[in-house]
Amino acid sequence: MPDKEVAQIFTVAVKSQFNIQYPIFRVYKYIDKAGQFYTVLTESRDSIGSNKDTISFNVKAITLKNENGKLSKVWELSDAIDKAKKGEQAIWFWSKYIDFKDLDKDALTEAIIVYGTEGVNHFEDGRIGIAIFYKAQKIMVRQQNGTLDFERKLQVEKTFYTLPQSIQNAVIEKMKALAKKWQAIFPVGWEEAMKKKQTVITGKN
What we know:
By secondary structure, this protein is of the alpha+beta class. Helix content is 17%, strand content 40%. The strands form three sheets. Strands 7, 8, 9, 10, 11, 12 and 13 form a seven-stranded antiparallel sheet that branches. Strands 1-2-5-6 form a four-stranded antiparallel sheet, with no helix packed on it. A two-stranded antiparallel ribbon has the order 3-4.
């Protein structure tokens, strides 16, 4: 959505009502047979890096339904850097991989939200979160990268494997694209493990 339209809808009062604390990074508007929706992506923007990049320690997404001008919350998602575990430096939404599509042709939009972190070795020890929103369910796929195979861990919620195959395929294609760009370093054999519906996949499998 254009910034001007975002400012008109997401006033100070609306932000307060829905606890939108961080600066708005982007808003997506979509309409399907269930109504009109806004997905708001926010990032905390805590500091400025050496390359003039904005660094965030927290992210939050919230989807609101618009019914005749009245907004109501449908779902939300939040995450933050893990300062203790891996020395994570920043977290942000990866808009290149975010989609709002009717993947199973039921006239309802499925949202796929991708975000990630950067560690001391950039993507090599960062994390990735893939959130799938399907018929009021939030289903997560989480990846811990690592330079060595035993450091890598892919976690897939069991409900992921109950999704229509078209949605599963769309997520797996995004995972392949992430791997191709070296933003994700999955455990060896992860695709075969997912075909077997494994929920925890590591280099020790």
